Amino acid sequence: MNDNIAGGGLLLQSPGAFYITDLCGTLEPEPGTYLLNRDEGSAAGLPGILWFMNEAGGMLFASDQSRGNVLVRVDTGTQELKVVLQEPCREIRLQAGWLYYINEKDGRLYRCLPDGRKPERLTDSVVQCYTILGEQLYYACAQGIYSCPLEGNRSTRLTEGGAAYLQTCGARLLYADLTNGHALTLLDPLSGEREAYPDLIPLSMISEGGYIYCCNAGNDGSIYRLDLKSGESLRIYGERADRIHRVDGQLFFVHQESWYTMPLSGGQAVRFQADRFR
């Protein structure tokens, strides 16, 4: 499962290949999604403008912005695109043989098989965001954060109030708490223990190796790294950034409508160029 989904799922790494969606036409002349092959040193355009990308078994699953956000799959060998569901979808996650997604028409959480068969609605409430941890779904709606089995039903409320950017961080849940000034918050779903960092207001965020990386709206969108062991945060990039992703041991983020990359430890950020793979 691609854990960049909370940031839009615009980057995806798979064996021998790297997929990136350029929304502004800064990598190539036209906006689009590109396959960068390290082994062959080549870059090729894929059909569609793809968000929330996941890959399994030679198939890339995504929401295609150029087709009204419908659920599609792309054969990574032939690059042929096929519409899986004629429904606008977001936050697509591939888990245990099912595609999970939020239907943008009614806002509910659904799942279907990878070929589009057997669509099932999993929630009655409108879902703001969700994630998967082990055999449980965790989703946020206006009433709070809930837990339920992967097949839906039997929901249990864990907290009150809404959340954004819900994702996993080890055995905990990571999100922006809408009832607490959008503060970066960690929640243990078993004990209910919460840990909030009110100085960090995420525009987007990810976690890796005991750290959380956050585009902090509390400081003009600059990137902070939070050490979960010490609780201390450090600004590692001083310019405004958004849509932070992690691929191949690097941070990727959007700055002034272009993709940039930098080491996880911080340092010099470099504008990403597709031709580095050619």
Quick synopsis:
The protein has 278 residues and is an all-beta fold. Helix content is 0%, strand content 56%.
Description of the molecule:
A hairpin with a 6-residue loop joins β14 (144-149) and β15 (156-160). A seven-stranded antiparallel beta sheet has the order 5-6-7-8-9-10-11, with no helix packed on it. Strands 1-2-3-4 form a four-stranded antiparallel beta sheet, with no helix packed on it. A four-stranded antiparallel beta sheet has the order 12-13-14-15, with no helix packed on it. The protein is globular, with a radius of gyration of 18 Å. Helices cover 0% and strands 56% of the residues. The chain has strands at residues 11-14, 17-22, 32-37, 42-46, 50-56, 59-64, 70-75, 81-95, 98-103, 109-112, 120-121, 129-133, 136-141, 144-149, 156-160, 163-169, 172-177, 183-187, 194-197, 202-208, 211-216, 222-227, 233-237, 242-247, 250-255, 258-263, 270-271. The chain is built from no helices and 27 strands. With 278 residues, it is mostly beta strands. The model has no long low-confidence stretch (mean pLDDT 91).
Question: What descriptive keywords fit this protein?
Answer:
mainly beta, seven-stranded antiparallel beta sheet, globular, 278 residues, 56% strand, 0% helix, single chain, 27 strands, four-stranded antiparallel beta sheet
Shape: globular
Structural class: mainly beta
What's the total number of strands? 27
Outline the biggest β-sheet. 7 strands, antiparallel
Which consecutive residue ranges, at least 5 long each, have pLDDT under 50?
none
Strand order of the largest sheet: 5-6-7-8-9-10-11
H/I helix tally: 0
What proportion strand? Answer: over 45%
Instruction: State the assembly state of the protein chains.
Output: single chain
What's the order of the H and E elements?
Answer: EEEEEEEEEEEEEEEEEEEEEEEEEEE
Overall residue-averaged pLDDT value = 91
- How far apart the termini lie comes to 27 Å
The amount of helix comes to under 10%
Rg, rounded, reads: 18 Å
